[in-house]
Design goal:
Length: about 600
């Protein structure tokens, strides 16, 4: 039995068998060839390198033409790697000495190269690891053909382990019998983690080298509550985990009883609980758990889960379906938040040096106006069917907001000219996810109908900590006094301008934080649907005065560890027993 500790990102427990998802790295078994085949293997290698070089030359030329010389450089680096003697010769040497296949020799050499880059102190070199895998994949494709997505081979229930997962790879789990997943890389608020919560499957990330140690079909337990994965569990461990699963099911039944009661404190202060969703159909999940509406529809997932930009018609159908399923409740549609870790195939071709600081979200929309206009048209048309609101992500300059609103008005004029109906008074808001927007919240608030604080990004940009990098997760925390100060300032700015302020980062789904946020004055929280019953139970068990006192004290600390331990202590006193699930206990110390 071996236990691996990681970061719990989606609650629940699953017991099953391992399935290694290896679309990043194709595993080639070691195969020895006969003496007289060695030259043939070397010739195969030569052919593969030549074919790969031809492809790269073409790609580089196309990229230079379409996107400029800067983006062609990436292929230049790949070409250099292939022509480098220090890369080629060890492969030939291994074929000669060990009499192995060309593909196995390629795999071994590139694995060594990737490890070498990964261990370099200079981060510029560390980022080359993905390039190394890319060139390896290209060569292997020429040697052994197209690599099928390994998920195609998944033919029964399994717990998927992988080095990393992009949100679109995780999306491919839909319809498969994936009971849980664990990745070597990743952080709590990475989009893949968010996606796991939407799929309602337990997930743990930051497991370091687990996917290399584990083998297909190994027995495994994944504990998404405590952030643990146990390989080859013994019978006693399996038995106690079966007990936890039964307890969890009993708690879920108790929470289900709350779905029809309002979310208000004991002294009657109403708090709206909204759901964050990635797909239109999830709107009914929000209603099932007694949610007050959809506080955030991450529309970019429409694109991330398909191979093309969704057409205006496809979007119109999805937004209409969502607003109809919401049965008259508010639905906040966020315009495409593409870029950074949420990239499409097309965007993968134009890597950026600092993608989280690059052309993402509203910036990407404003540079791709046809796409942006198509989305706004679809949203406006859907506004005819219910209570829709439009929200712009990652606004950092007033100019961006004004430009986005100008385009929206332009699209409205087009629709009017075409005689197409829409809600002309559709509320327009923005996310507050970067410090500049939080610090200037009063100015922004004057120009929008509502603000929604996105702490997943606000934390990373305030603390300069990548939300997806497991190596710095110890520094990523919403309990940092600087983050709390910004959140407080935004709430205050909204109140002064009489604008609704909500919070839709993952922080809103943590029970202890919810008391703090209500105490700071928030009356709308938006979280993963499965968290809403927990939040409702907690909020219904306290008075507003208790929350306000808690918020005052928490705001007086100057370190995040004081804040987390205080919140934990208070939660023990105020919160009903055995609420289960994630809590600030699991936040980095
Ligand atoms: C956020 O940044 O807090 C947020 C809700 O947006 P996303 O997680 O989609 O980046
Ligand atoms: Mg965000």
């Amino acid at each position: 039995m071996e236990t691996f500790k990681g970061i719990p990102v989606s609650p629940g427990i699953a017991i099953g068998r391992v399935f290694i998802f290896d679309d990043f790295r194709q595993r080639v078994p070691r195969r020895v060839v006969a003496d007289n085949q060695v030259e043939h293997e070397k010739a195969r290698l030569g052919g593969a390198i030549e074919a790969a070089e031809g492809e790269l030359a073409k790609l580089s030329e196309e990229a230079a033409e379409r996107l400029g010389p800067e983006s062609a450089k990436i292929f230049g680096f790949h070409q250099q790697m292939l022509s480098d003697r220090t890369v080629r010769e060890p492969i030939l040497h291994r074929i000669d000495q060990e009499q192995v296949t060309a593909e196995f020799a390629v795999q071994e050499q590139f694995r060594w190269l990737a490890d070498m880059f990964a261990q370099m102190d200079d981060s510029t070199f560390r980022t080359k690891v993905d390039d190394v895998w890319d060139v390896e994949r290209r060569l292997l494709r020429h040697l052994i053909g197209e690599h099928q997505s390994s998920l195609d081979k998944l033919d029964g229930p399994a717990i998927v382990l992988s080095r990393d997962l992009t949100p679109s790879q995780a999306a491919a789990f839909q319809g498969k019998e994936v009971k849980g997943f664990g990745t070597d890389l990743g952080g709590l608020t990475s989009h893949t983690a968010i996606f796991a919560r939407a799929l309602r499957i337990p997930a743990v990330v930051g497991l370091e080298r687990l996917s290399e140690v584990a083998e297909d079909r190994d027995p495994v337990i994944i504990d998404g509550d405590r952030g643990v994965v146990i390989l080859h569990p013994d019978d006693e461990t399996k038995e106690s985990y079966r007990g936890y699963i039964a307890q969890g099911e009993a708690l879920a039944l108790t929470l289900a009883e709350l779905s029809d009661v309002a979310c208000e404190t004991r002294d009657g202060v109403r708090v709206k609980l909204m759901g964050n969703i990635e797909f239109a159909d999830e709107a009914s999940d929000v209603l099932d758990v007694g949610g007050d509406g959809i506080g955030l529809f991450r529309t970019e997932f429409l694109w991330l889960t398909s191979d093309h930009e969704p057409s205006e018609e496809e979007q119109y159908e999805a937004y209409t379906r969502c607003v109809e399923l919401a049965e008259g409740r508010d639905v906040v549609l966020r315009t495409f938040d593409l870029g950074a870790d949420k990239y499409t195939q097309e965007r993968a071709m134009t890597p950026e040096r600092n993608p989280f600081l690059g052309c993402r979200s509203i910036r990407y929309c404003l540079q791709n106006l046809d796409m942006f206009r198509r989305q706004l048209r679809a949203m406006l048309r859907a506004s005819n069917h219910g209570k829709l609101k439009i929200m712009f992500p990652l606004v950092s300059h007033l100019m961006e907001l004004r430009q986005a609103k100008m385009i929206l008005h332009d699209v409205m004029e087009d629709l009017t000219d075409e005689g197409i109906e829409f809600d002309p008074r559709i509320p327009v808001g923005m996310m507050v996810e970067v410090p500049s927007a939080a610090m200037m919240a009063s100015s922004f608030a004057k120009e929008v109908d509502f603000l929604s604080i996105g702490t997943n990004d606000l934390v990373q940009y305030t603390l300069a900590v990548d939300r997806t990098n497991e190596r710095v997760q110890g520094l990523y925390t919403a309990a940092h006094p600087a983050v709390l100060k910004l959140v407080k300032d935004v709430i205050r700015a909204g109140r002064r301008q009489s604008r609704e302020v909500s919070l839709c980062g993952e922080m809103a789904g943590e029970v202890e934080y919810s008391l703090l946020l209500v105490g700071l004055g928030l009356r709308t929280l938006s979280a993963t649907p499965s968290r809403l019953p927990y939040l409702k139970r907690v909020i219904r068990s306290v008075d507003i005065g208790q929350c306000e006192r808690l918020a005052r004290t928490a705001s007086s600390f100057d370190s995040h560890s004081q804040v987390t331990s205080y919140l934990r202590d208070q939660a023990r006193k105020l919160i009903p027993d055995s609420l289960g699930g994630r809590s600030v206990d699991d936040a980095p110390a």
